[in-house]
What does this fold into?
Amino acid sequence: MPSRQKSPGKLRPLQLAAVIFLTVSGGPYGLESLFSYVGNHGALLLLLLTPLLWDVPTILTVLELNSLMPVTGGYYQWVKRALGIRWAFFEGWWTWLYTFCDLAIYPVLFVTYASFFIPEIAAYKIPVCLLIIWSSALLNIIGIVPVGKTSVALSILVLVPFFFVFGLAFFHPGAPVPTPSIKGIGYSPLSLGLYTVMWNFIGWDNATTYAGEVARPIRSYVVSVCLAFLITITIYLLAALAVNRTGIDPASIDIDKGGFPVLGSFIGGRWLGILVAAGGMASALGLYSAVLLSVSRVPQVMADDQLLPARLCARHPRFQTPYISIIASSVVVSILVFFTFADLVLMDIILYGAGLSLEFLALLILRSREPNLNRPFKIPLPIGGLILLFLLPLGIYTIALSGAVWSAKKIGLPLFLSLGMLFSAALVWRLIRWLKPHLANTHTGLHGER
It folds into this structure.
């Protein structure tokens, strides 16, 4: 019998790293608003500090929980084992909603970058967005391996233009790199800058929902997540250094004014601007397919627990993918593309932070209640140390959220809409319990490939 490492239809570490990179990052595209919020100096500082406070605790949590339960459904299954089916539903529901907001961002970004060299395409934003949504749905229905192979190719297309940007910026006779600083930046711009950086670093847990479709999942995730994190933080810092090195006005590269293609044109001319814009389009396509891959697996496991209609877990007769879930997700995203980039980022982070808090709590409970369970990857901290570790991302989240509330006159609608989405979980749960009173607060067992 062939080993699992050689089983067909499973993601390999390089493919997984590419999918994770595109799920979390997709290159610096989308960071542009950060420079207009906090300036060149503040952008560099936030890109240095935020990953340490926001991402490192999240990544460590994901790796430990995934080593404990490397199963399809990922974070939903972790919360279910630790907190029971009610909070698992909240986790799945919130993450499902936030991922819809996240998905809607990428077709909008695609149109933004495409309009750099085809300005007329902006007038056809919605049709182009719908084309991206439904062609990506088709790719995901075909299967996970085609998504993985496509992710590798798109990752290369994303990174290559910035090699030219970094190289030319280094030799650009512009201003020297300044000292990172947030001096003189107001609280609201700082919080919006935090939101932008946080959004560009989210999705590590999303990549675990298809762990059952990854060859040797525990080892593969540790290697692939570390590789994806190093690539992501390196390319973000290099992008910030390039902006600083050239001395370009931060307002001129705002996402609404052309984004990084403007920086490319400033450094190398029109040809580089077009190349960077093409990379932005590849980034948007790759991000969309990778994130859709993760979210389409969550309704499947929720439907298995009778929390969503059973039809959602139906498998395609040929490709064995959750095609109804993929189609349902695509329908919702087709509606959300009518929101702006800034609105979707705000909604995305508010919902993501709520789900992430449950994952932190799940790790603490499982460490306390079942300390002797085999954990191939374990954070080398006791319970008290874990609590202190988790205060870091929760503190960043609180600062960003309070700043958003402070400036609610500008972003009131997406703020209140996202809060409404949070509370909708409780309403839907009550409806489920009324329709299915037999549902108990059960816990899942540990299973999956080691």
In short: The domain at 10-374+384-435 is CATH 1.20.1740.10 (Amino acid/polyamine transporter I).
